[in-house]
Amino acid sequence: MACSLHLAWDDGLTAYNFGPQHPLAPVRVELTMALSRELGVFDAPEVSFIDAEPASDDLLKLIHDPGYIEAVKRAGDTLIGDEQYCLGTPDNPVFPKMHDASALVGGASVAAARAVWSGETEHAANIAGGLHHAMPKHAWGFCVYNDAALAIAWLLDQGAKRVAYVDVDVHHGDGVQAMFYDDPRVLTISLHESPLTLFPGTGRPSEVGGPNAEGYAVNVALPAGTDDARWLRAFDATVPPLLSEFQPEVLVTQQGADTHLLDPLANLTLSLDGQRRIYSAMHKLAKETAGGRWVVLGGGGYELVQVVPRAWTHLLAEAAGVEIDPEIATPDAWRGFVRERTGEAPPLYMTDGRSPDFTPFEAGFDPDDPVDQAIQETRKAVFPSHGIDPSL
């Protein structure tokens, strides 16, 4: 069944570009948009584009320090870094008009949130967003302004009383967690690779929220090597019960594709087919717990050709209620564009050929399984705060 989807888009979103040697390359967004267009996702009757405008300074100040905003502007004008603000580092090199490009990403995510909050659409997306590491006073982990936190802060400013944020990027959603750590109006849930093996080194189950919001920061830290079945088991054991109890007015999700086994920067082993199951689960939870109000953001993903375009095309199709048979071939025109744009061989099909089934956690806890250990640690840390029994 078709769903209404507004896509916040401006060609300028691809100007968020740290340079040709940086892992976060905007070509992944270009290829996603091209593949989605070729497969007819944007032709669905309930899909439309909405304008994205740069976030104003006043809007950015909802989450970012004024001095930091001025430092970003200065760095983009002078191309001189500022160590105090983590600008000009290998992770966050400066580039021309850095503020303008970063503010546009933030504005696009707020536009998506506005479309959902106003009732114009059920779902809205900013596929170029999901820059979840940026902190109030400094850049961090390829992220200059935190568009995810900005969208949430805007919703709260409009009067929202309960916003849930679910982050499935392989990296911990540390910036969003930090900004709402003591705010019980925001439930942040992050499933990510263990901080013992991956940046940013945070996201332990013991990080549960501040004194006024204990249990409202939720972290599932998964061991390196976690595959589809184990990841989905962890998600199913934590996210649906919490969202069902919290009943958010809006669900905001960060859909990083870097959990894939081909991703060069991380160590989980999900397939494209497992990621598709995640998108379906998110959509279902938006309908069941948030009245259908779903704000969809991109995120990480560094296998730029083989993974991200296919993953996020499936994501947008899911949000639009458009059926894409995973067995179909990628379109010839898109393959030609990939070769022309990147010089790489494109993927041939919309699937990795996996069948990502999983056994629910409630079927039995294995104390020797590190994933089950992670699940149980998280449930014990936060479920009681929500009146949920963490035991099986």
Helix count, DSSP H or I runs of 4 or more residues: 11
Compute the average pLDDT.
97
**C-alpha Rg (nearest Å):** 19 Å
Structural class, judged by helices and strands? alpha/beta
| CATH topology category name | Arginase, Chain A
CATH class: Alpha Beta
Strand order of the largest sheet: 2-1-3-8-7-4-5-6
Q: Which geometry do the CA atoms define?
A: globular
What does this structure look like?
With 392 residues, the chain is α/β, with parallel strands linked by helices. 36% of the residues lie in helices and 11% in strands. An eight-stranded parallel beta sheet has the order 2-1-3-8-7-4-5-6, sandwiched between helices. Strand 1 (5-9), helix 1 (27-38) and strand 2 (47-51) form a beta-alpha-beta unit. Helix 4 packs across helix 5 and helix 7 packs parallel to helix 8 (272-289). The radius of gyration is 19 Å and the shape is globular. The chain starts with a strand and ends in a 10-residue tail after the last helix.
Please write out the topology.
Blueprint: E1 5-9, H1 27-38, E2 47-51, H2 57-60, H3 66-78, H4 98-117, E3 123-126, H5 147-157, E4 163-167, H6 174-179, E5 186-193, E6 217-222, H7 228-246, E7 250-254, H8 272-289, E8 294-297, H9 308-320, H10 332-342, H11 370-382
Parallel strand pairs: 1-2, 1-3, 3-8, 4-5, 4-7, 5-6, 7-8
Pfam families: Hist_deacetyl
Protein name: Acetoin utilization protein AcuC
Domain Histone deacetylase: 22-317
Short description:
The protein is of the alpha/beta class and about 400 residues long. Helices cover about 35% and strands about 10% of the residues. Helix 1 links the parallel strand 1 (about 5-10) and strand 2.
